[in-house]
Design a protein that fits this description.
Structural class: alpha/beta
Order of helices and strands: EHHHHHEHEEEEHEEEH
Strand content: 15-25%
Number of strands: 9
Oligomer: single chain
Shape: elongated
Radius of gyration: 18 Å
Distance between the termini: 9 Å
Length: 231
C-alpha cells in the first residue's frame, strides 16, 4: 500500500507560520522580484539575506509547534514505513519536528544554506549574510537553500516515480494553482485513490475522488486514523 502526500502552506499556517504573502501579492512589503528570485539576490543580496533571516528566526519561536495534522502524518509514516512518501512545498521544519523522516522539500529548507561554488548544502539556524564564514573554509558565496521563482524545484524525478506508483495520494493545505505541484494529481494512476484536504475547494478539486474541507489540523487526523484502522 503505497501512499504519497503533498503538503502546502495551509498546514503550516495552522501552526502559526506566516505565509509572508498578503492579498496584494507582497511578501512582508516586498515584491517577489525583490526577495525571491536569483536576480534579486544578485541585485540586492543584503535585502534577500534579511528577508530569509526573518523567516528562519520564526522557527525558533517557542509558541511554534507542529499541529495535529503534522502529527497525524507522522503516525502514517510510522505505520507504512518505506511505503510512505511526504512531499512538501513548505520550507519550515514542522514535519520533521512532528516525527516525519521521509520528507522531500520541493522548495528547499529555511534551515539550510547552499554554497554557490560546490552546490553543497549545510544545516544553518543562524542569521546569514555576505560575511558569514563558509563552513568548509572556502571563499565562495553562500545563499539560502530556497528554490526561488524561475528555479527548478527539488526532487521532481523522485516525486514523478512515487506518484506513478501510488495507491493513495493525499493533498493537504495547497492552493492547487502553483505548478508543478498542482499537476501531481494527474501523474497518479487511475487506480490511485486521491483525496484533497483544504479549507475550501480548489481549481483542481474535480480531479480528486474526495475533497475534505476544513482545517487540516482537524480533518487529516480523522481521515488518517480511520485509514490506519482499516489497514
Amino acid at each position: 500500500m503505497k501512499v504519497v502526500v503533498l503538503t502546502g502552506a495551509g498546514i503550516s499556517a495552522e501552526s502559526g507560520i506566516k505565509t509572508f504573502r498578503d492579498d496584494n501579492g507582497l511578501w512582508e512589503g516586498h515584491r517577489i522580484e525583490e526577495v525571491a528570485t536569483p536576480e534579486a539576490f544578485e541585485r540586492n543580496p543584503d535585502l534577500v539575506y534579511q528577508f530569509y533571516n526573518m523567516r528562519r528566526a520564526q522557527l525558533k519561536d517557542p509558541q511554534l509547534r507542529p499541529n495535529d495534522g503534522h502529527l497525524a502524518l507522522s503516525r502514517m509514516e510510522e505505520a507504512l514505513g518505506d511505503d510512505f512518501t511526504l512531499i512538501t512545498q513548505n520550507v519550515d521544519n514542522l514535519h520533521e519536528r512532528a516525527g516525519n523522516q521521509r520528507v522531500w522539500h520541493m522548495h528547499g529548507e529555511l534551515q539550510k544554506i547552499r554554497c554557490l561554488q560546490s552546490g553543497e548544502c549545510f544545516f544553518w539556524d543562524q542569521d546569514l549574510d555576505a560575511k558569514t564564514p563558509h563552513p568548509n573554509g572556502l571563499s565562495s558565496k553562500l545563499r539560502p537553500d530556497i528554490v526561488w521563482f524561475g528555479e527548478i524545484p527539488h526532487h521532481l524525478d523522485e516525486s514523478d516515480q512515487v506518484l506513478r506508483e501510488a495507491d493513495y495520494f493525499l493533498c493537504a493545505g495547497t492552493s492547487g494553482v502553483v505548478y508543478p505541484a498542482a499537476g501531481f494529481v494527474q501523474l497518479t494512476p487511475s487506480t490511485c485513490h486521491k483525496v484533497e484536504f483544504n479549507l475550501s475547494e480548489t481549481a483542481i478539486s474535480p480531479l480528486f475522488d474526495e475533497t475534505v474541507t476544513g482545517p487540516t489540523g482537524q480533518t487529516l487526523p480523522l481521515w488518517i486514523d480511520d485509514f490506519l484502522k482499516r489497514l
